[in-house]
Amino acid sequence: MLRGSSVLVTGGSGFIGSHVVDRLLAAGHRPRIFDVRPSPYHPDVDAVEGDLDDLEGVCAALRGCDAVIHLAASADVNEVFADPVDAERRNVRGTLHVLEAARRCDVGRVVYASTIWTYSDTTADRHEESMPLSPPAHFYTSTKLAGELYCHSYAELYGLEYTILRFGIPYGPRARPAAVVPAMVGRALAGEPLTVAGDGSQSRRFVYVEDLAAGVVRALDPVAVNRTYNLVGDRDVTIREVAETVCAVVGDAEIDFVPGRTGDFAGAPVCGERAAEELGWRPTTAFEDGVRRYVAWRQEAATPVVVTVPARERVVTALMRRSAWALGWALVTAVLFVGLAVLIPLDSDLNRYNTFFSVLLLLLPLWLAGGFRWEEPTASRLRAGLWGAAVVSLALALVPWPAAVDVGSGHATLLVLLAVAAGGAERLVETRIALPTWLGASGG
Ligand SMILES: NC(=O)c1ccc[n+]([C@@H]2O[C@H](COP(=O)([O-])OP(=O)(O)OC[C@H]3O[C@@H](n4cnc5c(N)ncnc54)[C@H](O)[C@@H]3O)[C@@H](O)[C@H]2O)c1
């Protein structure tokens, strides 16, 4: 996909999605997040808060995008086990809405996040993308497989291009605390014994999340059209090995063995050769290095100073930057309009200096609306205020007021222009023009 492409990332506020957004930015693309919650990691990235349930909302978010990377889902197998109806709503109907919105908006590609759990009930020594699958036991797997089937049908019926990615077990910074590596690290850091399900000999194809995100972005390449890829680590790691690695990185801890979970993926080897050959993608982070990076991130995130002092500094820096931006913009336009004002008086009642200040007044709503990124509910209030200003200005200019309140007669042209400026500015709030990244509140 061409550099600078616009890509919607559903679930972009989540664990894998946030890394995909990082990778898209690094590759020079323009990500837009679609999620039910704001991103804790990318406050400056274009974002739409919405639910996959709302087909019109998904369409609106997708409009103008070149591709969608669809990650939003109920991704925790225990949550799915506890509430299968909600999992069906998010994983199955949600995927259908993404595909339908992509069809309606003529979006070039849907990249769908599936899982190697699709192989969990297939008896084979080695799992490849082309092999026939068996009906899954776990409902989570059924919902993800349904999404894969919908991708195929949309390609057949409507010619919508897809890429299916079956992820290995991701781990790394920002992971959900309940996942296996975070849970073990958490216990080890707290000085508690590590819990291993079964005898610990069952293995997993873990994949370090930053490597995984790189693979997801590679899947936007034309070669991946209507293809399925396993994105997995380069070797199996047993659960016992996970516990031992965590002990080695964090420090000594005891290991407790407990019964296995219902429907858990038994862990046959999954082959990543197709992704290597066609996408040129291989994971590059060794398991122990990945665990080290996760532990470092977790310790950094737990350091109180990171949360308080820099946050205040960030706000001050952002305010200074935004003020500089507003001042610079005002100066440029003032210089331009001084020139204009010298040449063309705006209204027969205004001299050139009054005209200059009037033009600044006309620009005020445009600066307000277009110079900043307004979030709801402030954006709605601003829009209402701008409409109010437009209506009042028009009323003052056009209504034949009695002599006692004859406000408009002197500056009718100016008031009409002010109404137009306020109305035009209202549209700018709608388009939510974002400040360039360097002006953003967090600086990263
Ligand atoms: N984490 C894993 O172990 C794993 C393994 C294989 C595949 N996957 C798949 O990768 C994808 C991302 O997983 P993750 O681990 O980053 O999960 P996550 O829970 O961290 O992120 C999912 C995001 O989707 C959002 N979301 C959920 N329902 C939504 C809805 N109805 N509308 C809009 N947004 C919604 C959530 O707010 C969240 O930010 C999922 O599709 C998952 O099935 C995950």
Description:
The protein has helices at 15-26, 55-62, 77-82, 84-104, 139-158, 180-189, 209-218, 239-250, 273-279, 287-302, 304-307, 309-343, 352-371, 378-398, 412-431, and strands at 6-10, 30-35, 47-49, 67-70, 109-115, 162-167, 169-171, 194-197, 203-204, 206-208, 227-231, 237-238, 255-258. The chain has 444 residues and is α/β, with parallel strands linked by helices. The protein has 2 domains: 6-302, Rossmann fold (3-Layer(aba) Sandwich); 309-439, no CATH class. The longest helix has 35 residues, at 309-343. The chain is elongated and about 90 Å long. Residues 305-310 and 432-444 have low confidence and may be disordered. The structure holds nicotinamide-adenine-dinucleotide.
Helix-strand layout with pairing:
Layout: E1 6-10, H1 15-26, E2 30-35, E3 47-49, H2 55-62, E4 67-70, H3 77-82, H4 84-104, E5 109-115, H5 139-158, E6 162-167, E7 169-171, H6 180-189, E8 194-197, E9 203-204, E10 206-208, H7 209-218, E11 227-231, E12 237-238, H8 239-250, E13 255-258, H9 273-279, H10 287-302, H11 304-307, H12 309-343, H13 352-371, H14 378-398, H15 412-431
Parallel strand pairs: 1-2, 1-4, 2-3, 4-5, 5-6, 6-11, 7-10, 8-13
Antiparallel strand pairs: 9-12
Helix pairs in contact: 1-7, 2-4, 4-5, 6-8, 8-10, 12-13, 13-15, 14-15
The structure holds nicotinamide-adenine-dinucleotide.
Transmembrane segments: 324-346, 352-372, 384-404
Keywords: Membrane, Transmembrane, Transmembrane helix
Domain NAD-dependent epimerase/dehydratase: 7-231
